[in-house]
């Protein structure tokens, strides 16, 4: 407590934080454990935001925290903001609880938390279910040499750091992983096909890195539990991933598919029309060319579609007018032409959330043009000739 906070004189104010009847020690949870029903033990620590203890300017990471024999959860938020500090462990000659009882470790929004992720964080803390190290200034590679077999890890969030190097292929050993977020780092190399081994994965976010190469077919075919997939703002392409020819893909539960800002330079994959549960599809700023597949009209649950700033040509599929749940559609800055297939009620429903501007060959029927003009005084985002 003294390493992190100067809110109080902790030793005199709370000498026995877990003693029955003692006043509650802020930021600490005590409870009885299965191995000891006579005494309660510290099982959770919270620092950084009220009503938990605030952190002093000189706060640094206390390695002794890993020696608490019954500690199950650590949450440190906006704590290390002035004095640079690193995640450290006690010296090797100091015994740690075996097996470690720690199940949740969350260090978020600590702008002075620097350095590499210690390999021991994964190899030693074998009971971890949730590991969140997001919005810090961690650097170096994701440690790989000591990934444990049979890991209990369910959520891994390393987003918004400065991590470099490739995504380790050993990531496939985390068989219980439900959420994986490595977004907003400086990761390079290709996406390992071993990610397809994460059979229960529901969220995969690799956006805003420098990943390149072809997206592995295993991402599209093997992750049948996936609900959220974000690959935006990388250097990925889809050539050679097995698309073209209405090949069946396995993302049958996918609801959010964000893949804008990649140099695809290919026709839009017809296969994406198979994603029946899709609610949001973002494929903008990627150099796609050719016609919009009419199969996308089968995405009956779609509420948001972003295809802007590509080189798409031809007409807008007539079936788009039947997307009853759509509330946002951006097809601007393409080479589309022909009559816009939307009636006046569709245009009124979307209003400014429909953007067709930057397509010189598009035109509205007189009634649709009147509806657009009535909606916002001249067509607004619709912006067609």
Structural notes for this entry:
Keywords: Cell membrane, Glycoprotein, Leucine-rich repeat, Membrane, Repeat, Signal. 8% of the residues lie in helices and 23% in strands. The protein has a single domain (99-374), classed as Ribonuclease Inhibitor (Leucine-rich repeat, LRR (right-handed beta-alpha superhelix)), CATH 3.80.10.10. Strands 1-2-3-4-6-8-10-12-14-16-17-19-21-23 form a 14-stranded mixed sheet, with no helix packed on it. It has 5 helices and 24 strands. The relative contact order is 0.06.
Query: Describe the biggest sheet?
Result: 14 strands, mixed
> And the CATH topology?
Leucine-rich repeat, LRR (right-handed beta-alpha superhelix)
User: Could you list the spans in which at least 5 consecutive residues all have pLDDT below 50?
Assistant: none
**In order across it, which strands form the biggest sheet?**
1-2-3-4-6-8-10-12-14-16-17-19-21-23
Strand content: 15-25%
Tell me the domain tally: 1
Q: TL;DR?
A:
The chain is mainly β and 385 residues long. It contains five helices and 24 strands.
Layout of strands and helices, then pairs:
Elements: H1 10-13, E1 28-33, E2 36-47, E3 73-77, E4 104-108, E5 114-115, H2 120-123, E6 130-132, E7 137-140, E8 155-157, E9 162-165, E10 179-181, E11 186-187, E12 203-205, E13 212-214, H3 217-221, E14 228-230, E15 235-237, E16 256-258, E17 280-282, E18 289-291, E19 304-306, E20 311-314, E21 328-330, E22 335-339, H4 344-350, E23 354-355, E24 361-363, H5 366-376
Parallel strand pairs: 2-3, 3-4, 4-6, 5-7, 6-8, 7-9, 8-10, 9-11, 10-12, 12-14, 13-15, 14-16, 16-17, 17-19, 18-20, 19-21, 20-22, 21-23, 22-24
Antiparallel strand pairs: 1-2
Subcellular location: Cell membrane
InterPro entries: Leu-rich_rpt, Leu-rich_rpt_typical-subtyp, LRR-RLK, LRR_dom_sf
Keywords: Cell membrane, Glycoprotein, Leucine-rich repeat, Membrane, Repeat, Signal
């Amino acid at each position: 407590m003294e390493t992190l906070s100067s809110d109080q004189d902790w030793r005199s104010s709370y000498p026995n934080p877990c003693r029955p009847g003692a006043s509650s020690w802020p930021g600490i949870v005590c409870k009885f454990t299965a191995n000891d029903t006579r005494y309660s033990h510290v099982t959770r620590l919270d620092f950084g935001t009220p009503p938990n203890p605030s952190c002093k300017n000189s706060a640094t990471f206390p390695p002794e925290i890993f020696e608490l024999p019954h500690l199950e959860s650590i949450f440190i938020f906006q704590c290390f903001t002035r004095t640079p500090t690193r995640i450290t462990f006690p010296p090797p000659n100091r015994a740690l609880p075996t097996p470690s009882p720690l199940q949740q470790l969350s260090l978020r929004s600590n702008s002075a938390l620097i350095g590499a992720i210690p390999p021991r964080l994964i190899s030693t803390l074998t009971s971890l279910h949730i590991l969140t190290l997001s919005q810090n200034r961690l650097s170096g590679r994701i440690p790989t040499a000591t990934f444990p077999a049979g890991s209990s890890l369910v959520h891994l969030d390393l987003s918004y750091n400065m991590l470099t190097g490739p995504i380790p292929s050993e990531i496939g050993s985390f068989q219980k992983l439900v959420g994986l977020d490595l977004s907003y780092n400086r990761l390079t190399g290709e996406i390992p096909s071993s990610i397809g081994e994460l059979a229960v994965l529901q969220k995969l976010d690799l956006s805003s890195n420098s990943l390149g190469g072809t997206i592995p077919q295993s991402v599209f075919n093997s992750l049948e539990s996936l609900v959220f997939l974000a690959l935006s703002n990388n250097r990925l392409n889809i050539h050679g991933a097995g698309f073209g020819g209405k090949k069946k893909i396995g993302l049958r539960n996918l609801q959010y598919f964000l893949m804008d800002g990649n140099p695809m330079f290919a026709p839009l994959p017809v296969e994406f029309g198979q994603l029946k549960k899709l609610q949001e599809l973002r494929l903008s700023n990627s150099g796609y060319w050719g016609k919009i597949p009419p199969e996308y009209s089968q995405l009956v649950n779609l509420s948001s579609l972003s295809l802007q700033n590509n080189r798409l040509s031809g007409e807008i599929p007539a079936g788009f007018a039947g997307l009853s749940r759509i509330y946002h559609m951006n097809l601007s800055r393409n080479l589309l032409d022909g009559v816009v297939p939307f009636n006046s009620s569709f245009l009124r429903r979307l209003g400014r959330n429909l953007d067709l501007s930057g397509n010189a060959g598009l035109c509205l029927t007189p009634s649709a043009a009147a509806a657009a003009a009535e909606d916002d005084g001249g067509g607004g985002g619709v912006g067609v000739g």
